[in-house]
Amino acid sequence: MSSKLAQYFPMIHEREKLLSQIQSVPLLRHQFNSWKKEAQEEFLDFCTGVKGIKLLYDSFFKEILNPEYTPDRLNRLLSVLLGTNVTIKYVLPGDSTRIADESSLLIMDIVVELDDGSLVNVEAQKVGYAFPGQRSACYSADLLLRQYKRVRDMKKEKFRYTDVREVYTIIFIEESPKEFQQFPTEYLHYFKQRSNTGLELDLLQKYLFIPLDIFGQTIQNKGVSNETEAWLAFLSQDDPEIIIRLINTYPEFKPMYEDVYRLCKNIERVMGMFSEELRILDRNTVQYMIDEMQAEINNQKAEIADRDAKIADKDAKIADRDAKIADKDARLQERLRENELLRQRIAELEKAIRHSQ
What we know:
This protein is α/β, with parallel strands linked by helices. 58% of the residues lie in helices and 12% in strands.
């Protein structure tokens, strides 16, 4: 299959030469042959420009938007998403801050500190988590506490709560859960805490959820019309036609794609990165299946419990009805006995009257 992208990026591999290069190195050949057929085709497609590369995969994102080597790129992305100019000061380790092992469905995760002390966690999920609000709030709280402890320990007696800055959580979701599907034309969901009275307090925790599947459906209908959409298309779309329209309209993205295809020239390195992504995705798939099975089991247990409760309620109603019927039977029997005694008394009186005549 020919590559339209090769016209714009001449460093892109030709498929036959790429396969020949892989097969000529035993280690690379073994690695390539260990992949499933669909993974082999995916790798060949993005290396040869048949499709774009998935830039939200952790290793590719951190390579192309590395805040240490190319800080302007991630600075601009965050500025566009947050609606204000920001500058990254540090990249912080993120995995150690997890409250629990919640990385099973993550395909990208990075935590940065901005020059004003704010923390931004950017993560991408292959499949949206259940309970997305609760989970994100817990992780945001963990980051907020992490910042609070660090600033308090650094400033000691000079510490003030105004020294604690905002914590932003930005979540890209490739396959969004049902909550987001209720808003089929919305793909930027901003959250922050508000009062019911209009009282303004900065409660520090802010969120942005971006369902990329909904975004993809939206631009299919109307195309890319602003810088925010351009960034989302760059991160999530692998259709060559969309990529070509993007770099023609927003040429600032072309150098980033050039970095992608220069990276693909280093076959050993890019195959190692792709293998790691496959390993993570395989683990994610297993975990997702386990989570889905557990959710199904929980639902079935809940249905059984509900059914048992309804049966118990019906049994109680039947028992109550039987008790009422038994009570009525007892009263009826008592009346029958009273009627019988009355008939006997009447018969005795009639007999006595006859004898007295």
